[in-house]
Specification:
Low-confidence stretches: 10-21
Strand order of the largest sheet: 2-1-3-4-5-6
CATH class: Alpha Beta
Distance between the termini: 60 Å
CATH superfamily: Alpha/Beta hydrolase fold, catalytic domain
Mean pLDDT: 91
Shape: globular
Number of helices: 10
Strand content: 5-15%
CATH architecture: 3-Layer(aba) Sandwich
């Protein structure tokens, strides 16, 4: 009997480690002038159902977007298990880094990308403040590339050829910046400019750009997308 128990335990251990090796990996990419700690709540919640999480810290203010994409994405992919799917959950600039990386590299086992408040068509805040003293110091080269002009990086990148869902916020805690943005916005990016040609789904939620990645309802929508490939239709607000 003890021998049988030992054999059963050994089998369970094998099954457990096999499941881990095939677990989906979720790479988290924070926004401009933020840190990986801004994604901590998301990271903790994603680990609960068994996702392997890679919460990336990258120097968002120190380099341009093309350089940041290489610095952030490639090492993160190396940390994912060799088997199993790869997913991304990004905030703001993080989504542009994924688009930049995928414009040059293919990720064969890429499954889903969920972008939170991405400036997929740029932000008018950059258009109107980029020449003000201190803007470059605070936002770096990457921040200067996030305008709405046709030559801006987001508008030079291709349409999505991968499965991506976008969550946009329609609340703001920065009325000054919101006054610079036409239409409904989250304090940094308009709802309209979060949209990406070829996206699979788009959801508007009553959250701000600054704190959306910590919002419980947003996180539940992220989990729903990673499981089903779309947002929860019962709380949809287009």
């Amino acid at each position: 009997m003890p021998k049988l128990i030992v054999q059963l335990l050994g089998l369970l251990i094998i099954i457990f480690w096999s499941a881990l090796s095939h677990a989906s990996c979720v790479i988290l990419l924070h926004g401009l002038a933020r840190s990986d700690s801004s994604m901590d709540v998301l990271e903790t919640r994603l680990s609960e159902p068994g996702y392997q999480t890679v919460n990336v810290a990258y120097p968002s203010r120190d380099f341009d977007i093309a350089t940041l994409a290489k610095l952030a994405v490639k090492p993160a992919l190396a940390q994912c298990a060799s088997e199993g799917s790869v997913n991304f959950v990004t905030h703001s600039l993080g989504g542009i880094l994924v688009r930049q990386y995928l414009s040059e590299q293919n990720i064969e086992n890429l499954k889903y990308v969920v972008m939170l408040g991405p400036p997929n068509q740029g932000s008018e805040v950059v258009d109107k403040l980029q020449h003000f003293p201190g803007f470059h110091f605070i936002n770096g080269d990457a921040g200067m590339q996030l305008g709405t002009a046709e030559v801006s990086v987001p508008n030079q990148l291709d349409a999505a050829r991968f499965n991506v869902g976008v969550i946009a916020g329609n609340k703001s805690i920065n009325l000054i910046l919101s006054s610079l943005i036409p239409g409904v916005d989250d304090g940094k990016v308009s709802v309209e400019h979060t949209k990406l040609e070829g996206m699979n789904d788009h959801l508007v939620m009553p959250v701000t750009h600054t704190f959306m990645m910590k919002n419980k309802a947003v996180i539940e929508q992220v989990l729903h997308y990673l499981k089903h490939g779309q947002f929860d239709t019962t709380s949809r607000d287009r």
